[in-house]
Amino acid sequence: MNISKNIKEIRKLKDITQKELAEKINVDVRTIQNYESSRREPNTKAINTIANAIGVPIVALTDDNYFKRQELLQKLKELIDKQGIVGTDINRIINSLLNMEGK
User: Which residues form the HTH cro/C1-type domain (predicted)?
Assistant: First the structure.
C-alpha cells in the first residue's frame, strides 16, 4: 500500500493543488508535501479527512489497485450493456461490485 503515491495521484486527478488540499483539511501545506513524499505517513484520522476532502472512499487512498479494479468493472459493465445482454442478474452483480468498491 502506497498511501503517499495514492494521495498525490488522486489529488492531481481531481485537479487540486497541495495548498488547496491543505486548506481543505486545515493543515500546513508542508504536511501534504510530507505525506506525498513519504517523509510522514498520515494517521487513520488524516486519511479519512483527506479522502473526504478530495471526494473519494478511504479505500482509494489505501488500496493501490482500487482504480484499476473500478476501471475493469466499468469496462465489463459497458461491454455487457453494448452486447445487449439483458441478464438482470449480471447487471445486478456488476452494480453491486461497483458499489462495494466504494465502501
Answer: 7-61
C-beta separation of 48 from 61 below 8 A: no
The CATH number given to whatever domain includes residue 35 is 1.10.260.40
Q: What is the pLDDT of residues 20-77, one digit of tens each?
A: 999 999 999 999 999 999 999 999 999 999 999 999 999 999 988 888 888 888 888 7
Model confidence over 75-98: pLDDT tens digits? Answer: 887 877 777 666 666 767 777 777
**Cβ-contact 21, 32 below 8 angstroms:** yes
Are 22 and 49 part of one and the same domain?
A: yes
What domain range includes position 90?
66-101
Query: Would you give the DSSP letter of residue 38?
Result: T
Same domain (yes/no): 43, 19 = yes
With cell 506525498, the residue in question is 36
Under a CB-based contact definition with an 8 Å cutoff, are residues 60 and 10 in contact? yes
